[in-house]
Design a protein that fits this description.
The protein is mainly alpha-helical and 206 residues long. It contains twelve helices and no strands. The longest helix is centred in the C-terminal third of the chain and has 31 residues. The radius of gyration is 19 Å and the shape is flat. The relative contact order is 0.06.
């Protein structure tokens, strides 16, 4: 990999570490490795906001709400209109036991960007927890329409539809979710194991 060669030449380059974190998070889906790279990048360059955002996302995925809340709060000072930051902070507030504040933050994002997928997804989750199942399904259906790759939103949509009595539609979304999980597992197996052993195999690339 180009990143491996870059690491050998400049092991403490914050931009290299940021891109390495991005590669592990978005491509390999290895959160622990991404978190380590992002954390080192922020340690070397505290002003690297994209690396800090990546670190906050990794911490949030690990359900460590207090630490990412601090990072998101700091990012909000410099990026008050960044919806990714606001939605991340809202999820932290919910995780820290303040769902009403989380709803307020997400509603503010949706007032400005009504089609923002992660805001729609989180708003649906929050409505589901309040047992507002029809409302949750509406939010989550919009989230899935705008980002079909949001498998968590699709899973939550299946749950909300089931609670709303729409069993057949719920089962269809659950089948999509389960197939996506299988596809992702297969993709990760190819990328992390088989690709290096069979780099010229056209069937594997296909």
């Amino acid at each position: 990999r180009c990143l491996d060669r870059w690491r050998q030449m400049q092991p403490d380059n914050p931009q290299m570490l940021y891109l390495d974190g991005l590669f592990h998070l978005d491509y390999l889906h290895v959160v622990s490795a991404a978190r380590a790279s992002y954390a080192r990048a922020v340690e070397l360059d505290p002003e690297h906001e994209e690396a800090r955002l990546g670190l906050a996302v990794c911490l949030l995925m690990c359900k460590d709400f207090a630490q990412p809340a601090e990072h998101f709060e700091g990012l909000r000072q410099g990026q008050p209109d960044n919806p990714r930051v606001q939605v991340g902070f809202a999820e932290c507030r919910d995780g820290l036991g303040d769902p009403d504040e989380a709803i307020r933050l997400v509603d503010d994002v949706l007032a400005r960007k009504p089609d923002f997928p992660s805001a729609l997804s989180l708003r649906g989750q929050l409505a589901y927890r309040k047992q507002q199942y029809a409302e949750a399904a509406s939010w989550l259906r919009q989230a899935v329409q705008r980002n079909p790759a949001d498998h968590q939103a699709r899973y939550n949509l299946a749950l909300a539809l089931e609670q709303s009595g729409r069993v057949e539609e719920s089962q269809e979304h659950m089948r999509h979710f389960q197939q996506a999980q299988k596809d992702l597992a297969r993709f990760n197996q190819i990328v992390t194991d088989q690709d290096g052993k069979r780099p010229t195999d056209p069937a594997l690339h296909c």
